[in-house]
Amino acid sequence: MKCIDYDKAELLQELTTLKVHIHHLETQNKKLAEQCACKENIEIALRERVKELNCLYEISKLIDIHKKSLDDFLLGVVNLLPVSWQYPDITCARILFKDNEYATPNFSNSKWKQMAPIKTDGKNIGRIEVYYLKNKPVIDEGPFLNEERLLINAIAKKIGITSERFSLDQQLKTEKNSLKKTNIALHEVLEKIQHEKKIMGLAIQDNVDKTIMPILDILEKGLSPDQKKVLSILRKNWEDIITPASGIENKKLKSLTPTELVICNMIKNGLNSKEIAQMRGICPDTVSRHREHIRKKLGLANNKINLTTYLNSTQ
Hints:
The chain is an alpha+beta fold. 69% of the residues lie in helices and 10% in strands. It has nine helices and four strands, in the order H-H-E-E-E-E-H-H-H-H-H-H-H. The radius of gyration is 48 Å and the shape is elongated. The termini are far apart.
């Protein structure tokens, strides 16, 4: 009898131990199931994030591809949206931009909608709408994920920035064309001015030849050699007035004083320092100082270029 009781007690003990093991195994199994579910959720979340990143990347590519067409860009964007959401098979979308609408081929309104405004300069100029065509479990924002909210906001912002760029590019193109037309018109005006200037110069030259030069020819007959030199300078000055000097070097001549310009004119016409001093009523040393100042202002201070040659080359 005692043996039987002992066997029962032993069996009860083993049964209790077995129950403990079973409970432990059930607990471990539950934890493993939770871990598997967690791992699966993580994998799903990662796949969704990859889809979202791919969407933004593809939109960036569309910006480069459709640099000249905002319509093509927006149509490309709207067709990227369904595959970037959690249930692409039942997803449709459209973009309303100003007075235009861009929609996926399967677009249809439904009560399961996610929307984001498109803004430029703080003003609404359109919106993005993403719809589920069938009911799905409520997650964060209805059947939509919080991450999808972030994605649609990011896309709306990118569209706003891109539309501003398109607008600026178009404005720049318009201004460039306008400037081109203005330059053409200005060129035509300048050509006309040059033509009229040439005609005017020829007319003045003709008048001088007919009226002033004959008088100078008469005066020259009764002049002394020194006076004839002065008259020669006068003739040359008339030519300079009628046919203005051109070129970069003339800008340097503007830095000279009136006295230095007179002396330059005499040097250019072949007068030496002694002759200039005699005609100006000054000493030759003063003329030499003027010549030094002139050479310095013309950038010839340390140059061996002959001043007479240089002055004549500026005409």
